[in-house]
Amino acid sequence: MTLVPILLYHSIADAPPSVARDFTVDAATFGLHLDLVAERELDALTVSDFVDAVRRRDESRLARAVVITFDDGFRDFATGALPALRQRGLTATLYVTTGVLGAAPMLDWSQLAELRAAGVEIGGHTHTHPQLDTLAPRAARQEIAGCKALLEQSLGEPVRSFAYPHGYSSRRVRRLVEQAGYESACGVKNTLSAGEDDRFALSRLMVRSSTGPDEIGRWLDRVGAGPRDREAVRTRAWRAYRRARALVTRRPGADPEWRALSH
Question: So what's the pLDDT on residue 1?
Fold first, then answer.
């Protein structure tokens, strides 16, 4: 079983946006992370490249692969992350929340085509960034499929991959993502991914503002990540609490800051 690290970033900036303060990596540290990738001569794949390699059973490519992903669509991806990636000949997958594009800390619609032309894969991340597993089926479908339609209209090409906001999904949500026409989807799980994983529940490793180069280096060496064979008790408990709260209050979960950004 070939294990592959799929790194999850949000923002690369020295002055973090408030909505992603705990998940913002400063530019110098991000450069150190990428230098570790380059020193190991790893092959940076997009998520769809990774899925294609799994389908082909291309074990030689997977053995030297790393996947770099970004969630949300912050403007500093274009100004901070992309130049550092290109300097080292690396690429990434950017998951975009369509309903916040154009807001103060976010990318503009006009920038997506430029990023795609630079080799970045653009994926879907819903329209308003809700906790999808707390939504009614119709609302979840609109968030998932509506995001895809808007991105495809803007880019003029299929959008193949999706990422669940907050990493939250369920069997029903994953089925809706597949029915919408996506070919893969990423969660979090904080463990290494493998070819045998459900392609609509790919594992990623969350990079926080406190994540240092040593930890990134261990992940790149395929060690030091969380266990693959079990889910933390607190994760299960938090999921049950969120879903029960949504049923009782009839208010599906969403972060107030994301709700304020959405339009």
Answer: 78
CA dist 187 to 83, 104, 161, 199, Å? 26, 26, 11, 10
Residue 48's CATH number: 3.20.20.370
CA–CA separation, 172 and 46 (whole Å) = 26
Secondary structure of 13-57 in HEC code, one letter for each residue: CCCCCHHHHHHEECHHHHHHHHHHHHHCCCEEECHHHHHHHHHHC
CA dist., res. 234 & res. 236, Å (int): 5
Confidence band for 248, pLDDT divided at 50, 70 and 90: very low
Among 179, 223, 212, smallest CA distance to 3 is for 223
Question: Alpha-carbon distance 240 to 78, whole Å?
Answer: 37
Provide the domain limits for residue 136.
3-261
Which pairing describes strands 11-12 and 24-25: parallel, antiparallel, or unpaired? parallel
pLDDT higher than 80, residue 184: yes
Overall number of domains in the chain: 1
Residue 224: other Cβ atoms inside 10 A:
15
Q: Where are the beta strands (DSSP E) in 48-180?
A: 65-72, 93-96, 121-124, 161-163
Q: How many alpha carbons fall within 13 Å on the CB side of residue 248?
A: 6
pTM equals 0.93
